[in-house]
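Figure 2 data, in text form.
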Amino acid sequence: MGEQVQAPERYKAELKEEGMSLRADAPVTVPDVKSAAPGKSQSANFTEEEYGRVKQALAGALQLQWGEETSEHIYPVSEDGEKRSEEIMGSSTTAVGTASSGAEYNLSYQTSREGNAPPLSLIWMTNIKKDGRGTAKPARIFEMGETPKGQEPGRGRELEEKAKELIQAAGFGDYGLLQGRWKESYYRLGEREWPEMGYWLIFTPVVEGISCAKSEVNLLGNSYISGPYIEVVYLEDGALGQLKIIGKEEFLGRQENENFLLPFEAVHQLFEQYCKDFFGFSGSSALKAGEELTGLVEGSSRPEGVTKPEIQVEVKNVKLEYAYI
């Protein structure tokens, strides 16, 4: 497919716009497939069988004993606050399990069926912390491939393989690793504050050799996944901290038609123009944000020497993949 998009081995760029700068020297990853064509999918709920397989995989991986499980249907509510039992909007199931290590886990399975809205289903397990801790400050996310001080080189790779085995056993062998990073969280209990290191992994579906993701970027430039994904967090000692299986899309097949892929040169030009419009002060939304941030800087009484803030955008990697639209 490299010939189809005419992609180079690396994407290099350096440009400045009022209010922003962009720098790139990043590898370009193109899937090793013959071609890419549009496909069709539909949102769906995870089934009871899929949920059961996840429970079974977790029990095997953690030597975990499940306790009593509770389930309930979710019904729409009328204007007077009464449930309308003639229609089921979804279901909620919760189970608690204890691992051989003594750690306790809470597992939640949710489905939704609301009118014409697409289903949003999830299977979510969390290591229960019962020491009353609170979050002291936002976590620090390390760069991909960066090893924090005190961690053995290659430890992240070991946890990636461990996560792959878990999601394979849980029935999601058609998902691929999107990213794996170390994450340092900070907690507080009374007067005591302490950090805890963990390894954070994101997996997304792979269709016919091409990974699928729906990435979003907010006004602060933070990227996050909103489409189907699996998130796995391992604690520093290798214990499972969290497993999130969010959203399900059923692939309905390719649509061979006259659509074609833009050459890479056109794609990176569109991306660079987007950055100028979105982050630079020439863009209307960015201009309003800049005015709010700088206050007197934009006014006639601006103190001497005060300048506008500049957003710095650095591209670390480029990857061709499917996006859910």
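Caption note: The longest strand covers residues 192-207.
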